């Protein structure tokens, strides 16, 4: 009986389910049979699994996107910072090159073509796109190769009117001036003789012109401090024959000195490099200013040491002070500053920062003897004078002790 009751209840509940489903379907009389399974599924459907892990997947995706965003932000921030830094460095370098260009223009306008040439070459080496420096460099090259401005071949007193004296008389005067080492008069007479007859004793006159220009260049470089003019005379002499070893040395010394002048008081480390090569060979060599190569070398070392000290590069500054002290010693004020710098270098912690101001007073003395090259003309069997040139015996005697009186003043200030 109980069994029949259960079946009756199950049948009634089934009918109720069918009635409710029919209502949901819009009241249609179609009946849908629902099969009931008393055994529930062991595994949930795939949709239920996806819904269960969806929050974790979303969280991982958000973390991944965040990492990518931070990485890209850091990368673009680094690129932007590097761009600003490189831009600032480029701007500073451009300012320095512009200043050097203005100095070169000033030297050019003052007629110091060789120094200006060195400045423009330096600018072009640092920045090949600096077109203004390249244009100036080309302009100077044209002037130096086409214009005899430093030393005219003929003195201004010589007129273009041909000399009325006989050619033999002029030739004998040339020989007399050469033997007496009166190179200026010899060059004047040679020029006059060439104007009278360009084909007169060509080989002999070429030899005299070479010797005259060579010795004029040596005197201007070693004795008169006219370095640019001496270089020009050497250039003219090379058109008539190769320079001897001593003349080439004089030319190289003049070039080193002028290269040092191009960096004097602006880049003391580079200036000291050029003057230092002369300090051991020709310490008393000077230009028209009267400042010797040795003094300029010593002063550049002091200036460079001061520059490094202001940058708190104590050990670098101490090294330059030691070199200057070994070269010519230090006066009381500079010595006091060098001691402070040395202590800071040894301690590696600055104890005081010196205030550096230097004033140099120069009283140079140039001592030297120059034995010039004198050709000996000999007469051949046919009565023709032949120029016999010997090996140059030019010597320079220098005093290694500097005669300048540097009086720098420095005031150390305790910090």
Short description:
By secondary structure, the chain is mainly alpha-helical. The protein is 62% helix and 4% strand. Helix 10 (268-279) runs antiparallel to helix 11.
What is the count of helical runs? 13
Percent helix, as a range, is 55-70%
SSE arrangement, N to C: HHHHHHHHHHHHHEEEE
Q: What is the average per-residue confidence, as pLDDT, rounded to a whole number?
A: 73
Assembly context of the chains: single chain
Shape annotation: elongated
N-to-C terminal Cα separation, in Å?
A: 115 Å
Give the helix/strand class.
Answer: mainly alpha
Beta-strand content bin: under 5%
Largest sheet: 2 strands, antiparallel
Total strand count, please?
4
Layout: helices, strands, pairs:
Blueprint: H1 2-24, H2 46-109, H3 113-126, H4 131-146, H5 167-179, H6 183-196, H7 202-224, H8 227-237, H9 245-263, H10 268-279, H11 293-310, H12 314-328, H13 332-347, E1 353-356, E2 376-379, E3 385-388, E4 410-413
Antiparallel strand pairs: 1-4, 2-3
Helix pairs in contact: 2-3, 3-4, 3-9, 5-6, 6-7, 7-8, 7-9, 8-9, 9-10, 10-11, 11-12, 12-13
């Amino acid at each position: 009986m109980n069994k029949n009751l259960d079946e009756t209840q199950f049948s009634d509940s089934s009918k109720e389910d069918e009635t409710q489903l029919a209502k949901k379907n819009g009241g249609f009389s179609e009946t849908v049979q629902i099969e009931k399974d008393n055994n529930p599924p062991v595994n949930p459907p795939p949709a239920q699994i996806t819904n269960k892990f969806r929050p974790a997947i979303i969280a991982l995706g958000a973390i991944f996107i965040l990492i990518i965003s931070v990485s890209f932000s850091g990368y673009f921030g680094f690129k932007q910072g590097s761009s600003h830094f490189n831009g600032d460095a480029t701007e500073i370098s451009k300012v320095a090159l512009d200043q050097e260009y203005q100095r070169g223009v000033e030297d050019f306008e003052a007629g110091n073509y060789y120094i200006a040439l060195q400045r423009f070459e330096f600018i072009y080496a640092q920045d090949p796109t600096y077109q203004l420096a390249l244009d100036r460099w080309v302009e100077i090259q044209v002037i130096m190769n086409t214009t005899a401005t430093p030393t005219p071949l003929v003195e201004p007193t010589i007129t273009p009117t041909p000399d009325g004296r006989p050619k033999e008389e002029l030739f004998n005067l040339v020989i007399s001036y050469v033997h007496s080492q009166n190179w200026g008069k010899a060059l004047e007479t040679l020029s006059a003789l060439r104007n009278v007859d360009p084909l007169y004793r060509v080989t002999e006159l070429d030899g005299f012109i070479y010797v005259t220009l060579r010795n004029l260049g040596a005197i201007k470089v070693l004795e008169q401090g006219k370095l640019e003019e001496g270089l020009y005379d050497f250039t003219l002499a090379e058109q008539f024959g190769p320079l001897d070893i001593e003349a080439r040395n004089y030319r190289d010394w003049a070039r080193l000195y002028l290269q040092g002048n191009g960096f004097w008081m602006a880049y003391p480390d580079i200036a000291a490099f050029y003057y230092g090569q002369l300090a051991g060979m020709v310490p008393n060599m000077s230009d028209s200013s009267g400042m010797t190569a040795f003094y300029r070398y010593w002063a550049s070392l002091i200036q460079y040491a001061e520059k490094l000290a202001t940058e708190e590069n104590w050990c670098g500054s101490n090294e330059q002070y030691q070199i200057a002290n070994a070269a010519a010693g230090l006066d009381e004020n500079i010595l006091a500053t060098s001691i402070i710098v040395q202590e800071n270098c040894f301690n590696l912690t600055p104890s005081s920062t010196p205030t550096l101001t230097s004033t140099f007073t120069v009283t140079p003395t140039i001592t030297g003897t120059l034995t010039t090259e004198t050709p000996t003309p000999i007469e051949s069997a046919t009565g023709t004078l032949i120029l016999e040139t010997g090996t140059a015996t030019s010597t320079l005697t220098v005093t290694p002790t500097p005669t300048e009186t540097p009086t720098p003043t420095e005031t150390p200030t305790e910090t």
